[in-house]
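So, could you explain the following?
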Amino acid sequence: MLIASGRWRVFIAAAVTTVTLLALSIAAFGHEAWIDFVTKGLPVQGLILADPDRVATPGFPTIFMNLRGVDLSYAAAMSVQAMFSAVAISAVIWAFRSRKYANPALLRALFLACAIVVSPYILTYDLLPLTFAAVLLLVTTDLDGPGRRLVQLVFWTPTLQSAFGTLHVPGPALIAPAFIVYLLTRLRAEPRSVRA
């Protein structure tokens, strides 16, 4: 998003902040914590995603986990997830290149919805920023009926995922992509204006 919108100073500041936090964490706790994260933490994440018993599906509102919940193979589910991820990345690039001066609430909600869709490893509590942005959009923007319904669905996604995921019924992971389509439609209708 920062690269697509040409916000190079913010991008550089974020990169410097990341390196600084990495150095501070190594200084405070040693490099072993990062070695453990890579050698132990990441493999556990892979095991959770593989989840042959489908135990984790109620907590993951992602395309990948919704498909794993109905016993689709790991490779097939990851392939579908990759397609959704590519669309989400493309949506962010398009919006922040060609509509970067559009309504900031629309852009923020789009970015956060795409951030949810792009990863196969998102838990229900990770939806909080998107939920906040969607509710803020509802309050600050004149949304039509479908937009209001989608905001309500975004708000209820964690509950829907818990209920549907427990029964291994897919569906809640499609809420964020539907919201993305709605937001892109709204952004496309806005003029390609330049900052005054």
